[in-house]
Write a structure and sequence with these properties.
- The structure holds two protein chains of two kinds.
- Chain A is an alpha/beta fold.
- Chain A is built from nine helices and six strands.
- Chain A folds into two domains: about 120 residues, Response regulator (Rossmann fold, 3-Layer(aba) Sandwich), CATH 3.40.50; about 90 residues, Orthogonal Bundle (Arc Repressor Mutant, subunit A).
- In chain A, strands 2-1-3-4-5-6 form a six-stranded parallel β-sheet, sandwiched between helices.
- Chain B has three domains: about 60 residues, no CATH class; about 150 residues, no CATH class; about 140 residues, Histidine kinase-like ATPase, C-terminal domain (Heat Shock Protein 90, 2-Layer Sandwich).
- In chain B, the strands form two sheets. Chain B has a five-stranded mixed β-sheet, with helices on one face.
- The radius of gyration of chain B is 37 Å and the shape is elongated.
- Classes of the chains: A alpha/beta, B alpha/beta.
- At the A-B interface, helix 4, helix 6 and helix 9 of A face strand 3 and strand 4 of B.
Amino acid sequence: MIRVFLVDDHALFLSGVKAEFEDMADRFEIVGTASDVDDAIENIRETNPDVVLIDVHMPGGGGLAVINSVTETHPDVTFLALSVSDAAEDVIAMIRAGARGYVTKSIGSEELAEAIERVHGGDAVFSPRLAGFVLDAFAHGLPQPADPELDQLTPREKEVLRLIARGYPYKQVARRLSISIKTVETHVSSVLRKLQLSNRYELTRWASDRRIV
Amino acid sequence: MNTVAAPRRELDLFRHATDRVIAGVAGGLANRLGVPSGYVRAAFVVLSFLWGLGVVAYVALWMATFERVEERSGQLLDNRRQVGLGMMFVGILFLFRTVGWWPGDLPMLIVTTLAFGLAVLSDFDWLGRLLDPQAARPSKLRIGFGAVLLLAGLVALGGALSQLRTLGGVTLAVLITIAGVVMVFGPWLVSLGRALSSERRERIRQEERAEMAAHLHDSVLQTLALMQRTDDPKRIVTLARQQERELRAWLYGAQPGPNGEKFAAALEEAAGRVETDFAIPIEVVTVGDTELDDVTRAVVAAAGEAMVNAAKHSGASEVSVYAEVEDGRVDVWVADQGRGFDLDTVPPDRRGLQDSIRGRMARAGGGAEIDARPGEGTEVHVWAPLDGEEGESR
């Protein structure tokens, strides 16, 4: 049983997702919902859920503010971003802040359920759109991290991301590359780690730059 | 892609709207340097004794910087600023005296009394009021005190004038009258100007709202009405997707490039057409972008054909399109998880479509590859080199 918390500023969407989860009561328990940033931070800290489904765009700082505040006190809470947003930089910012994946709101219930189970199990969830964003980010303009090993994706990681961007589920990605699903998950997780690590390097540099000024 | 807050410009100086004595230059500088603003002010004063260096630097910085508007609060001025202005005034008096421009103690005393009276009455704040409508009103005590000072000044002036009977006294009287008029009508003029500018703002806002309402009416409301009259769930999904796409294009707008349309936008448009015609969701993901020329137009057309094929024949519930513009070439994959087919037993009509995809890509200097197996979906991959380079074959 995975304890799930929902954050979305659209009440209609919130109740829709909630209803879908009630049909899967044997797998998920909704421990709470919130429709604004402050509410979300407070209630997530209180209920300490396993997975938080979080909207990218919300008044008052958006999902980014929630992730940043909650991970300070509750680093074990896992975030899965769920949004209609098409703005790559917003989504990448969420991932770099620590979200374990990003899915668009048009995702089907069963896919959403699998995505939650996957992030709960410690893996990353890359929807085709996120895979595209990440490929784009590494190809152009992502601030260069200090460590050249984190600088770019390995050819294999790139292949995996490309197949996900082309719309293949993990199972088929594995089959096409003749590797196991576990290996696909490992590649995807390491891409996520690279994104988040480069963030940390960049933040350190940014902070030291400011101190010099 | 810049995801974390952008680093500031190195010399991002501004004038502090609240932490200020005269214009906020020292406050802004202190904020930038991260030291208490008192030190900076002291430095300016000390420098002023060195051939007026502090004053010159202050004025130069004043002219070179802008006030930070977002940090403006309702209470613009605090007592420190009034004390500062008072000190400036006294300083100027001393300067006059030193230089020798001094018509005598009595007239200067009168001028000073009048000036302070006016200042206390008006809260030193004509400029502040012009800039900021929310500045606090002077208290009753202050009005009373100012009025007394002003009256005293006028009485003294009258006495002095009757003694001196100078022409300069008339000028002074005129000035006092003007000051009185400004004091009486100033606030009204300021509030009039304020009302005009807020009215203009409101009008702009209303125009924007009207434009937004017109657009939503023509698009979203019409679609919603249409959906309420439709029983077919597939059609509802199609309508919703179509509307979503239109609204997105309107909100986030795919801007055309300097030479016209962009490749990614054209591909999404092609996907949108197929989505509408065949009532099937098509998920388009693009990495990179380029101008739309003859080659990329061919890629879009071929990919569009592949989408039509997938929508018509695959039986899949969704089609995925992935496009990549990188290293001087453009690649598009059109994939479905549908029933697939056996490439060796292709019916003649599909053979023709394949040829049109392949033929088109060959003419553009690129190529096409079709990967299909019965029961395992179909994927069409088209590619072409950019900038007229020779296409490599895979």
